[in-house]
């Protein structure tokens, strides 16, 4: 098997889906694009990788809350646009035509155009590795939305879109939590 540059190995296992993370710092709403996400177990615990280089990080650090919004293929240009400009100088909701919606538990807004939103509270900041551990407190899903395919960043400016869903629940039943 041929080798590849080790510096590009992350493109082989880049996680997904790409998410939009919203914050509210007490004065203004903001959105950042995050492709480094992780489900931590079968509970509503998640991890995102971000740090002080992102404008939104300071709001996450001070308020200890955010919303993970899950965009779909039809929002790819907004997802990329949000990720390449700074909220310090831009109202990203206005610039990218996204609608903030009030949640029930946190000050950060939901994004109406997204397939799903998860209100989260920060339960740990692992500064050494720039990991924010989140606990979901409320989840929303728009099952009536026509486009439901999510985006997965490869890490080199390209994306993979969800395809067909393959059902192996019965085969895996013994490993799944009750009710899944």
Automatic annotation (TrEMBL):
Cofactor(s) the protein requires to work: FMN
InterPro entries, per database record: Flavin_Rdtase-like_dom (IPR002563), Flavoredoxin (IPR052174), Split_barrel_FMN-bd (IPR012349)
Family: Belongs to the flavoredoxin family.
Organism: Methylomonas albis
Alphabetical UniProt keywords: Flavoprotein
Keyword Disulfide bond: no
Domain Flavin reductase like: 12-153
Superkingdom as given in the UniProt entry: Bacteria
Protein name (record): Flavin reductase family protein
Statement: the UniProt record of this protein carries the keyword ATP-binding: no
């Amino acid at each position: 098997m041929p080798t590849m540059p080790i510096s590009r190995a992350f493109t082989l296992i880049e996680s997904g889906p790409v998410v939009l993370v919203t914050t509210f710092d007490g004065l203004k709403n903001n959105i950042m694009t995050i492709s480094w996400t992780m489900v931590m177990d079968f509970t509503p615990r998640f991890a995102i990788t971000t740090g002080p280089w992102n404008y939104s990080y300071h709001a996450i650090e001070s308020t200890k809350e955010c919303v993970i919004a899950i965009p779909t293929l039809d929002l790819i240009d907004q997802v990329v646009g949000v990720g390449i400009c700074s909220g310090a100088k831009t109202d990203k909701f206005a610039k990218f035509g996204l609608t903030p919606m009030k949640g029930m538990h946190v000050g950060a807004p939901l994004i109406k155009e997204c397939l799903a939103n998860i209100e989260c509270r920060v339960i740990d900041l692992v500064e050494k590795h720039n990991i924010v551990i989140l606990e979901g407190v409320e989840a929303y899903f728009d099952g009536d939305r026509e486009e439901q395919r999510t985006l997965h960043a490869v890490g080199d400016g390209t994306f993979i879109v969800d395809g067909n869903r393959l059902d192996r629940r019965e085969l895996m039943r013994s490993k799944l939590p009750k009710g899944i």
